[in-house]
From TrEMBL:
Keyword field: Membrane, Signal, Transmembrane, Transmembrane helix
Gene3D superfamilies assigned to the protein according to its UniProt record, in alphabetical order: Immunoglobulins
Signal peptide boundaries: 1-27
Name of the featured protein: Fibronectin type-III domain-containing protein
Domain Fibronectin type-III: 137-236
Residue spans of biased composition, Low complexity class: 352-362
GO cellular component: plasma membrane
Amino acid sequence: MSAAPRHGLALLHGLLLLFFFCGGADGSEVPPPQNVITKTLNTNYTLSWDWPPGAAGTHAVTFTTQYVPRYQLKFKKKKTNWITACNQTSHRSCDLTRFNLHYLGIFVLQVRATVDGQHSEWAQTEFCPDKEAALGPPSNVTLAPAGSDLDVVVTDPLTSNNTSMREHVPNLYYHVQYWERQADGQAKRLRINTTMVTLPGLKAWTWYCVRVQSRDDFYSKTSDFTVPHCMQTEGSIPWWNIFLYFLGSLLFFFLIVLGTIYGLFRCCKTMKDVLNPSDQMPSHLKKYLCSSPGSDIPRLLTPDSESELLCEGVTICPPPTVLEIHIPPAEELAAPPSGLEPNSSVRHSRQDSSSSGDSGVYSSGGGSSSSSALKHLSAVRHNHMGSDDIFKGLLDPERVNLREMTAHLKSQPEVADEGVVDVCV
């Protein structure tokens, strides 16, 4: 055939397609769905298709999906009983999983479009799950340490009814890959027909990663690998390692106990200082008031006998006192004044602290003779002022020992009651 006729046939075919789509838009004819395919995984089946956008114009488009076992189409005399899976749905897919299509059967699937009451032609396809359904990876992979090796436990892929896919794929087996996590070397491969295997030749106390893939050689089906699972192998623990663990745990326990005791001690001390503060006594007072030099306990009161002993060395310093003693001349002392008996004696007495401190007058036994004697002594006082220096030297006006004064006064000779004392304080 020449190029001109070929070009004319192509032009004619294009015009027919244009008329076909334009007529569907006007409602005279609706185009059928295109690219009808099945998406499967184990026993989960979904029929999907495409439809040209804008082919329905402003009208809504719906789709109807049906299926039938292929063997029923061979009986031409018998009416085919098509089963409707999805009726008048707007989706571009239809789920066939709930119909439990037999895994080893062959089915014919068809779908058509409906626009404003107008139906398109049926678009058909054949489907065989055993041949076309994809095989899924294991549903679960578990690792368990076995000394320096690892046990790998694989769970079969599951159907839509949560049963094992091994019921539909008897020759199912697994491809195991494992490698050392820190190493960049090539992964090792292992084929297993069971659901459990022990990976040999592994290093002790080393991390390994494992992933598994499902396979079926009858139709050359292979699944995706599972997510890598990693675990560390175990092994015998050296004695020195056990000893170090023991020392570390013992030290940790000791530090915990020590810290607890120290915390309790600090807490008790703080509470004691807050509730019962101790005031320190000055050192110069502790020397005299405390029972011992290093003790804070004050000295208790002692009986009177001991208190006297403690106060034996105490010296009382009264205010300065001037003692004036007047001694008459020898002539007057030799001849007693008139009115006094020759044998009369003068008694010396001290002024009491409770009496008047400024009088300096002592009483005598006589009446009028006493007054004349006082006058006489007063005259003698003015004449013998120089004798005061002698007594001032004998008695220190800054400090007077009461006991010595008492002993000195007691040692003086007694005088008569009638006499007059010539000592003024």
